[in-house]
């Protein structure tokens, strides 16, 4: 059953065209069997002050992901593992503890950035959202996404701008349950890996405060045959950053 909601004063219900485009976007965002890369993260305050971090990411398919902090020293070794869409763990090296992240806690900010734990996971929307094509903007397809009831998403609506050729998202707007714009994400830095177009630049900006987080993907390697054991709770304490 779809959830009826409102965004920008218009009722949204998914339709066949929108859901089909969303699946194509999922495929475009996850074109490789697996990936490894580093992320240079800059967290920028509204007054211009910056905090830099570095992470390593392993990803398999469109669901499994591991994120490990490399710097700064006070968070080095902290790791998050996503086994599947419903199962996420965090390893805290200072306590040598692995904890499961409850579904409601996945809306919390990821280490002071403008991304939540959910948003740092791999991008795959079709299982948790239904879509309707609502507009075209400067040659891009605009989809309005509504959270499926079974997922109990903390955000009920999003808007996604898709390139009609690559099906990659260049812009995402995140709305709260009252339909107010909360954050805007932009994506770019197109590059070719094994003949496939992918993105290496992602920014997220808070609508109210102007606080922002900027991610740059470097050292991207694909299709290395990563095993499922890398994405398990048991392996969290054994991976060296």
Description:
With 241 residues, this protein is mostly beta strands. It has a single domain (5-235), classed as Clam (outer membrane lipoprotein receptor (LolB), chain A), CATH 2.50.20. The protein is 6% helix and 49% strand. It contains 1 helix and 15 strands, in the order E-E-H-E-E-E-E-E-E-E-E-E-E-E-E-E. It has one helix at 16-29, and strands spanning 5-7, 10-12, 34-44, 50-60, 64-71, 79-84, 87-92, 97-100, 129-137, 140-147, 157-162, 169-175, 181-193, 196-206, 212-222. The strands form 2 sheets. It has a 13-stranded antiparallel β-sheet with strand order 8-7-6-5-4-3-15-14-13-12-11-10-9, covered by helices on one side. A two-stranded antiparallel ribbon has the order 1-2. Strand 11 and strand 12 form a beta hairpin. The longest helix is centred in the N-terminal third of the chain and has 14 residues, at 16-29. The radius of gyration is 18 Å and the shape is globular. The relative contact order is 0.21. Mean pLDDT is 88; it is low at 1-12.
Features:
15 strands, outer membrane lipoprotein receptor (LolB), chain A, 13-stranded antiparallel beta sheet, disordered N terminus, 241 residues, mainly beta, globular, two-stranded antiparallel ribbon, single chain, 6% helix
